[in-house]
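Many introductory courses stop at the sequence. We go one step further.
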Amino acid sequence: MSAPGSGGGWAGANVISVLGEAWTTASRVLRVQVAMSFPLLVARGLVPGIGAIHKFGKLPDIDSEGPLVVWGGTKGPYLGFTATGGEAITVKAASGTADAGSLLSSGTATSGTTTTLVDTGATFVTDTVAVGDIVINDTQSDHGIITAIAETTATVARWRHGTTPAASDAYRMVTAASTGAAVVRVQKLLDSAYAESVEYLILAHTTGVDTTGTDFIRNSRARVVLAGSGGANATVLTATQKTSTGVIFWTIPVGYNSTMVACDTIPAGKTGYFTEWGAGVLGGNNGNLEVRLVAAPIGEPAQVLEEVSVKAAGTSMFERNYEIPKNALPAMTDIFIDATSTTANLSASGFFTLLLVDD
């Protein structure tokens, strides 16, 4: 956020001048933050100990059946909650050769700024790194799209998550090898202690690519951060446990570049509070969906928290907001939305928002 009076065109600075009140830059920033809405402060990471989860999912085809979990994969039970032990996670494309990236250069940074990464021993130009390629900072779980390149310096538009490279940060530079997805940012990786981390994977067509971590038991979110000329994943991308391949955590539908999984798990050291949830239905037939918000604390059976009905004709979407956040779900609780249909050829969607508060 720009400090008032720092050239950002903040109108409040003129009000202060009229009132004749002298504010320091720090006090101006503090007062602006106080005036912000609480949700915006949380979104900007300005409320210590409180974060948020926003989840959206889609079930592309549901017939006279259910309940089925709302996620982007095949119909049937969601298998991402069935893992009994931690493993590496494998990601691969369903078919073809369009979804792949090529590693051009890697090493250890010697320094960096908010828009650069420097490695004094590198040969980026010789390695054919080019504008439009991606540089991944694996140490800080961040990335940037390259806007200029020199032999020892990569310039990015910005680091996506606002970090600054430090000496000894491990990095990789990647280009798209074909027209489809090249790099996937795998987020919300939870190990067997439910601690959270992030990894970047360079796709290799239908050959599975493994996470570096080998102890993951949950994974509910991923997105494509580099693609070729097609601009999106050309085939379905799927993530499973490496050995227990029946544990399917997510798919990315063709062209979506993002998971569509209305499921999540509360990490270690957090308590979750719902602030909203909702669902919708699409389809050529008249029919109803019975939609449920469900939570399963570890070791306990799944509990239906709320249930509503939405119609394919007439009201096709509902949203429920809570003035007082709801439930206080403990760490290691699995959450999902499921749907039961009264007719064939409907498509269900669902979403929820959770505040995560440090225990």
